[in-house]
Predict the structure.
Amino acid sequence: MALSGLDIYKLLPKTNCRECGFPTCLAFALSLAKKAVALEKCPYVSKEAKQALEAQSQPPIRLILIGDDKNKVEAGNETVMFRHEEKFHHSTAIGFIIEDSLGDTDIKQRVDKIGKLHFERVGQQLKTDLIAIKQAKDAARFIDTVKLISGLTNAGIVLMSEDKAAVSGALKILANRRPLVYAANSQNITDLAALAKENAGSLAVRAESLDIVLELTKKAKELGVEDIVIDVNTKNQEAKVIGEFTQIRRQALKKANRPLGYPTIAVMDKLNSYEEVIRAGDYIAKYAGIILLHTFEEWAVLALLTLRQNIYTDPQKPLQIEPKLYPIGNTTESSPTLVTTNFSLTYYTVLGEVEASKVPTYILSVNTEGMSVLTAWAAEKFTPDKIAESLKKSGVEEKITHRNLIIPGYVAVMSGDLEEKSGWKIVVGPKEAAGIPSFLKNLG
Amino acid sequence: MALELVKDKWVNAVSVLTIGATKEEGGSRGRIVKCGGEESLPFLFSEGKIPHRPVIAMEVLDVEPDDWPRTLTSAIGPAIKNPVEWAQKCESEFKADLICLRLAGAHPDAQNKPVDQLVKVVKDVLKATTIPLIIVGCGEDKRDNEVLPQCSQAAKGEKVLIGEVVQENYKTLTASVLADGHSIIAQSPIDINIAKQLNILITDMSMPLDRVAINPTVGALGYGLEYAYSIMERARLAALSGDKMLAMPFISFVGYEAWRAKEAKALVLEFPKWGSELERGITWEALTTTAFLQAGADIMVMRHPKSVELVRNHIEELMRG
């Protein structure tokens, strides 16, 4: 929560000594609130004031980095409770749990399969982020497993172990990879915090109540760990987890409660693949910075990454593509030409169907400022004038010899007007993109 | 010192919508369904009462669907050819809270079925089931205005939920639904202002507030889900803050949307990277539903028996508090 000028004024000496260059302490405070001047200009500022103001300059939820510089996974630094208030900033990091009790061959296969879990959707690459190695055997086996997995993947690593020897050995292998150590509790925090600090790792703390979480994060910070992640172990009772994740974010954003100003982590336990996906869905919507799953089925991961993409899309900026002419397949001078908007979802849906039809086709994407067909039409961003202008500018007239333009079925009503404005013959296409393949095949 | 919690304080609650009437209440249902009534944001039990759990209606069409993938139709089985058997199966085997009968066969581009045939389906479904009923038209205004008032009359006393009305076409159906004692679904195109305006128009016709459900129009996972998600969050925040014209339960046609998505339908042969089509389709519907539960949805209209089971279990888990 930002401090107002008056809040800051209360922290200043109120002597109006003018050494800062301002006529009064109040004027200086107002300028500080706007971040237009540095606090150091005041030679008499107290230690308390300094702390309060420094805290203000930090984000309310700390940004945590996991992974090496090339494969950075970021969590935290969120600023709102609801995405419509601004946006959610750092997509929930998704990771997969692998136990060290598995055989090496099995582990290799899993890591390989997890590495292939990336998908392209509406022009964006959807990727997973982390691999979590969970200790079930002795320290030696855990360290060997970490060695094996870290050699196979560049993904960020989470060390799931409370065994000092195991964590210590594993951290030595992971220099420069900034692993997350999961998780410290009241008993082992001193040891794990020391290890995390020494090896530049981050530390998850885990407790059943927020009061204890608070003590743990304070302790970790005292012990020199800056990058902390919070797990609320509420025995899997779903509404409680959501309630506590909500509370943690509110504490950070509304009360600037520093010891709770860290990203959260949700770890799946004893659930089947379907249940993991559904619970993870809750956590993507409600405030998890990191989610660790066991399932790595393609369908499960595709669905979760898609939900994450949806929830983390900037509500003020719909995904757009460059408005221009796109040749799809081996187009010729007689290829059909269809027009749509530059809203990514519309364009990529149309593109998918055009590709499926295997008919080489030109798609003209008109600049509708990222609006879909009907919205753009209603907002006069997808009008006969705009389409005619785009046709001219796109250069399509030099590429093809015919003058037939296919328009979306939903805007059939503009056919006459568009024929007049463009000089092209208008063909009304299907309303839904799904109708495109049969439509193109039957064009003749 | 214990942490001082930051709790939201709200001044208004979502209205409680009742669907169905028992014999004593003038209908023939074995039980009724109440939904809405939330005094807090979804599942934040410590901040206000959440008296009714979200409910699941299973969609039944009066005609055999021709564009549903096999993974969906085969889970329903041969009953899909007969709306009465299909509805019975939803009640007895799939444990739906409600039936949502979609009169798709009324559409002029489909079978353009005569009114009396459609009315008969409504009556037959009511006779064959004991759970409350939702009836939705084919979406073509003219046809719906012909068909739905007749269905409303035929179901008089049963307190069904009927829809949908839109800003440009609400008078005919609202008048019938009002006269026959039912409730109405008000559909708005992902637009909070239109949602509110339509509710004002409907209640101006003296429809009580607790006989309206808002359909904010949802998009499937990957197909604009986030737009409806935020509209619902905004509407619910406004409702809890005192706006009575947005304080109605939400109905979400998640099944209809999710099963149109390519990811729900495509075969693994076409997209090997997407994994098994069976689990993929089920998950697409279940995860779409999960997201809208978190945005405050009250009535989920779903299709696949397995997704229904998953969501039902999840709702149960969430309602443990």
Observations:
- Residues 238-255 of chain A form the longest helix (18 residues).
- The two ends of chain A are 64 Å apart (CA to CA).
- Residues 5-57 of chain A form a domain with the 3-methyladenine DNA Glycosylase II; Chain A, domain 3 fold (CATH 1.10.15.40).
- Chain A touches chain B through 51 residues (CB under 8 Å).
